[in-house]
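lol ok so funny story. i was supposed to be doing the assay writeup but got distracted and ended up predicting the structure for this chain instead. priorities right. anyway since i did it might as well share w the group, maybe its usefull for someone
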Amino acid sequence: MNFIDGSLFVENMHKLVITAAPYGPEWLPSDFPEDIPVSMDAQIQKAVDCYNAGATVLHVHVREEDGKGSKRLSKFNQLLAGIRKACPEMILQVGGSISFAPESEGDAARWLSDDTRHMLAELKPTPDQVTIAINTNQMNVVEQMTAADVAGTSLAQPEMTKAYREMTIPAGPGWVEEHIRRLTANGIQTHFQLAGISQLETVERMMRRGVANVPLILTWVAIGGGFEAPNLYNLANFVRACPDNSVLTLETSMRNVLPLNMMAIALGLHVRCGIEDNIWNQRQTAKTTTVEQIEQLVRIAREFGREVANGKEARQIYRIGTFYENADETLAQNGFAPNRKPRQPAVASR
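and the output, tada:
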């Protein structure tokens, strides 16, 4: 992305799109009973509350009645249908992991099989987006967490810490290409969840080969543990690598969330918050709900003078429902340089 003169003026920015992640599959309901919905009605109401607070994208996981993260697609269908009816303007973004929470104590936290994750393309009602990881990667979500971050929660238990520390993302090239193909065939947008520049480069190569003819809607996930750390230098390098027409959201964990989101608001990027990412206020004196986190970002955005997108505007910014015919169109629409013609010099001569 190019930041020429005037880029930091709010009139030259998209309105702010806020993604809410309120379901927090890594936590048990006892970790934050005031804000972890368990019944289906409560999970639907949580989506409505997030939308009314200012979030227009909902990162969807679902729980069973016993409070455990569900791996049943029928439960996802039920939740999606309920949210569609209660909050039709909201962009529904299903987490591509389905639920990485352990089945029981001592189990590993793991993503489901390739074939099961492909079935996300068949959810009904159809979600607007499914997130996708690129390249098999470590996902140690507890690496940068402190003892204070997990104090009094299930993640402080050694067996739970071990389960999440050892988690990996299976996302080989064959599976990724097939998953994008299936999502596209069913009118579902691919939302890229990227750990760093090398994964962005893989996405670009896929687009150049014509196997990912989709808008470049992506999230930089800076959680450490196989992903980049949330610091200014990593952020600046990743942003510089993104083409101008991409749509970039920032994501991190625990008390890094608010500082990184403040940077996103100032730079014209987009934000994500919720208890899946963080459960604490900045001084760690109390837990903070997803709705409180959304309301905080709305207040900060208004102080910057940047308006928050409504549901219709967020769909336009995210280019929901847009797909491309071929590599040339995909590259042009996303702001990448065109493919080099055979024997074309890297530097054109006059």
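Residues 222 and 282 are 18 Å apart (CA to CA). The mean pLDDT is 93.
back to the writeup now i swear
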